[in-house]
Amino acid sequence: MIGRLIDGRYQVRSRIARGGMATVYLATDLRLERRVAIKIMHHHLADDSQFTQRFIQEARSAARLAHPNVVNVFDQGQDGDSAYLVMEYLPGITLRDLLQDYGSLTSEQTIDIIEAVLSGLAAAHKAGIVHRDLKPENVLLADDGRIKIGDFGLARAATANTATGAALLGTIAYLSPELVTRGIADTRSDIYAVGIMMFEMLTGEQPFKGEQPMQIAYQHAHEHVPAPSTKNPRVPAELDELVLWATARDPEHRPRDARAMLDQLLDTQESLRTALPTQATSAQRTMVLPAAAPLPTQSTAETQILGGRPAVAAPADTGPALTENTASLAVQSRKRRSKGWMLLVIILVLTAAAGVGGWWFGAGPGAAVTVPDVTDSTPEEATAALQELGFEVDPSGTMFSIEIEAGRVAGTDPEPGAALAPGETVTLLVSQGRELFAVEELRGLQESVAQTVIREHWTEGTAIRQFDAEVPEGQVLDALDGQGAPLAAGAQYGDQLPITLVVSAGPLPDLAGRSVEDATAVLGEAGLTAGQNLQQFSDAIEEGAVIGIITTNEDGSPKVIRVDDTVDLAVSKGPEPVEVPDVVGDTWAAAKEALTAAGFQLEYNRLADAFPGAFVVSRIDPEAGETAPKGSTIRVNFAGF
């Protein structure tokens, strides 16, 4: 991708970062001659309309926010199979980089950064946008002091506070309790994430820890965030209260939006300044100034003008003083002329040296050579190309790459485009292919939590929703790789490859006793399509009504049914006809047993029950050998009655 011209306008220079959906590159806008950051969706996601729509949503969400604390979006488009997003380029670091370098921050530093974050977030909330993925990685600290929020890839309308479905839900360490338990997000979910960031900035660590993401998510859902001062005693009580307010487990007990929290932060800042003045304000306290020196007299002023010695009082004696000063000025003049000649010689020497140096480094042996782009070539081809330009080559470098196959060159150090003198060393970075990560246990997690785990190293496929009467709706049944094969926990799986979740859709709808028309409508509401109507006998369902959905295969094995499948219906033909057994001539004891076992109801003289061995059956209706619906009534007559 490096060196490519996007849409005939954006020249890609180098890679800045890589995420779950896209890679961010530094590029030059050739039309406006400025540096920009261009975010390009991963190729394997381009065919997924859901991801493409989410990518476009980021552009629209961020473009609606014209605020100094929000990263500006300039352009969005499609170049071949690459969807891209053009943003302002901010050279600098992220808040995550700052925390890794310094651990905890001071109260003043924390307030300054959070004030900028809340200002940008307040603009988003006012525009009806919830960020939903606030974390230190998405807070940019520019070299010129600007602080901005980026990555609105998960942004949604603030009124869309319903279950998130297949949407990504941000990093587990910053998920609010309602996102973990119900998959619901609104402006107060962003406030929770800000509170967690404040805790981390003040203490140097996150409030909840665990070996598995599920353990961290459980703590967010069931435990209260502790006060920062329990980890760092230097944190003032006012900031303790602000963090606890922002991270309340009940959303109703948090600030309603970023503006409400920003107002309180400013009040807290003012109260801290009043209670504990900073060094800057302390320096402005009233100071006792020294007494002013007396103004110089006329004679003193003349002394300073005439060369530094007191002037003689009599006018006749001023000549020697003037003569002495004149001589002094002459000496100084001669020194200046001498220095002038020396400066001229120095300038001539430097000019000659500059000319020689210009030739040496411009056209001579010392001329700088641009490192070429040898990406995707073999190490042998890259070595030959670099040596031809006069470079020394170190072929031992390696790097992981999702775009370049293992064994081919994925980059160089220095990067292509760098200017080096001949003889300097260029290190080849040979691709090791995709970096492998161990797959965590996803089965049994809530869908939203599993999606967040996937986003750490991989990409999401469109979730498959499968009906299961034993597993609650929204719980993960299985995880599949890019070929649809199950991924076992602990399996090594490549960076940025897709993982598709199989999620429980709950039990199948109950259709027993409904008409075929009603059953078809209910199936449509559940995301299923009615197929064939298969006739079956049923003792419980009247003829013509639906018995239920066919849930077994022809071999009797259970059938997997998923949303968007077509299913067949079992429709009742009424009770199954049964052949009437021949019991004429049998005692009532034997006849009753045979007729009951065949599933018939019996009509007979109840006196026979008193003497079952004495009564003999003389006739039955229907007669033996005929068929009658199972459950129908057989009339029995006895000999002698």
Automatic annotation (TrEMBL):
Segments crossing the lipid bilayer: 341-362
Source species of the chain: Diaminobutyricimonas aerilata
MF terms in GO: ATP binding; protein serine/threonine kinase activity
Catalysed transformations (reactions): L-seryl-[protein] + ATP = O-phospho-L-seryl-[protein] + ADP + H(+); L-threonyl-[protein] + ATP = O-phospho-L-threonyl-[protein] + ADP + H(+)
EC numbers: 2.7.11.1
Record-annotated PASTA domain positions: 366-432, 574-640
Protein's recorded name: non-specific serine/threonine protein kinase
Residue ranges of domain Protein kinase in the record: 10-266
BP term (GO), one: negative regulation of fatty acid biosynthetic process
Keyword Nucleotide-binding recorded: yes
UniProt keyword terms in alphabetical order: ATP-binding, Kinase, Membrane, Nucleotide-binding, Serine/threonine-protein kinase, Transferase, Transmembrane, Transmembrane helix
